[in-house]
Amino acid sequence: MRHSLEGLITHDDITEIAETEKLILQDDIRISILKAMHSIDVQACPGSGKTTLIATKLILLAKKWNYPHQGICVLSHTNVAKDEIIDRLQRSKSKVAQRLLSYPHFIGTIQEFVHRFLALPYIRSSGVSDITVDNDTYAKQAVKLLELAQFSWFKATLSGLGNTEKQEAFFRGSFRYISQNGEEINIDKKSKAWKSDNNFQKAISDLNRLKNYLDKRGVFLFRDMYIQADKACTNNIELAKVIRTRFPFILIDEMQDTQKFQDELLCKIFPFNQNSIIQRFGDPDQSIFNSIGTEEPNQSFNGKLRDQMDYIIHKSHRFDGALSEKINRLSFNEIPLETELTETSLLDRAQAHISGNKFTHTIILFNDDTCEKVIEYFAQIISNQFADKYKKDKKFTVKVVGAVGAEITPDKDQFRLGHYWPDFDKAKSKVNFKESCFIDAVRHCQQNSSIDLADNYKFLLTCILKIMRMSNITDDDGRNFTNSTLREYLIKKDSWARFRKGLFYLLTETEATQLIRWVQACSILSSLIGLLDISAETREYMAFNASSKPMRTEQAPTLASSKDNTISHVDGFHIELSTIHAVKGETHDATLVVETKNHTFDMQAMLPYLTGELPSIAHPNSNLKDKPNSRKSNKVFMRQFYVAMSRPRHLLCLALHADRISDEQTQLLRESGWQVETI
């Protein structure tokens, strides 16, 4: 099959599809990739049009494919990447592209491929027909099994982990995997009762019996399916050969995100030394999902340096030369990132600037007192540089991103997204607010009405339930009211509509906190919930307090928190806060990358690369080659910042603490084209 595909795609085919699909396909690298009918690895830089290139190649193949029972297998790591490829094929002007969406071809995620062609048929062959593959379902059923007598000892030892939620988390991570010692079960956290070797071995034995019990009933973790797939190949040595015959051409997208266990299975089915054509596309410089949990990243692709790749697409149509020069300093593989924008495209892009000029990429320096003013400062830069029609466009995208977005733990040495904007974790901020009285709660909700009315409604309802507990008002069974039982109680009294109307009045009308209105509102509320004999504690909690003030805020009047971690600006645009991992694959108009800390201040560690003081970690002359710990952490930071800094098409800003940058570094950055400003 391999030899019969050689020369399948010609230069004339490429010229024709470029005209049909309105594509520009003139560079030698892309043309060579489209023509290639042998196994290749392709590193594609951010904004290189990788998905368009893949879809174009698939359409070219579809036009020439004459094998009724053999197909093209297209694999991706995520549903997003898969859907994007399918969408490109469906929008193609070439009707033959639709053929790839059905037999004998396959387009799906690696997980879907493993299910359909390996794991599920193997499980069914053992007599199990009703199969569920879902981590949450698996965890809940596993916890229920602990009630069986045969797992009583295991239940007792597992209780050392904590409540049901923590036990379910344990089971979600209890997948089978293959190690040098054979098949093992992953354990993320050991119970306190497993300290002795004997107890641990017995627990492993019990866990294995429990998993076998679920296996026979067709309940599996997603990760377990790879073991089932491996068993299918091991027990039927002809299976892999049959699959290779079915799929002589394999194309893998987003290869950098493929985990080691996935890569090993794929290599077992489609080895490079066989007749199958395997073409892998990705960018090791953007492999930020490496080592998720206990998993290891693939090495067959991500371990390759620049010179080991068959093809490198280093030209991007996302950003101009000034921005690409700044980003490529963080390329681990030292890819010479260049712009592919034409002079005409650059002139069109200049219209986004308020004066038709080039955007000023800025490094914002702050101190302990001005950290919470960073986003306001960034917003002002956007307001000053972007033309009004772009700022007000619904597609205008602005994001603030950082590596660490977890909740802030008080009294811990941390630096996270929430330090720049306290409302980043809105649920957490509401939990931390403790009202001193009922009117405090109402004023708090009114002031934060732009965040989420539903959340404020729930918070105020919680305060009303607190009032009922203070006055010992219980339901017919003598239990404290809950949200649902209070609703049922008021519906029976035909008071629910009036109660909700009163609640929304308190949430939205500032007059409600004036003395006369407040007394009237509390009187109506007391009547609705049956508050007759008001205790001294309740009376004090519901009393009018003229000195009660809204919660102090440091937010500038030009900015306001909205829902879903979004900030509204008076100019009409929104700024979304997110982690670096969450924005991978996105394109923004403007991006602010902020410094965070996970053991080490990440941006401080990257400064020597941004300034040019240090070459890439992969460079043979790098002075980190004898410092493995620094090398490892900096490699992670480098790839994270490469992803973050390559999101915007127009404006890039960075923010870090003024104490973590020297005067010499500031000067070097200015010489590299950065504007450096201090709040």
From TrEMBL:
Keywords: ATP-binding, Helicase, Hydrolase, Nucleotide-binding. Transmembrane segments: none annotated. InterPro entries: DNA_helicase_UvrD/REP, P-loop_NTPase, UvrD-like_ATP-bd. Pfam families: UvrD-helicase (PF00580). ATP binds at residues 44-51. Residues 23-344 form the UvrD-like helicase ATP-binding domain. GO terms for molecular function: ATP binding; DNA binding; DNA helicase activity; hydrolase activity. It comes from the Bacteria. This is UvrD-like helicase ATP-binding domain-containing protein. It comes from Limnobaculum zhutongyuii.
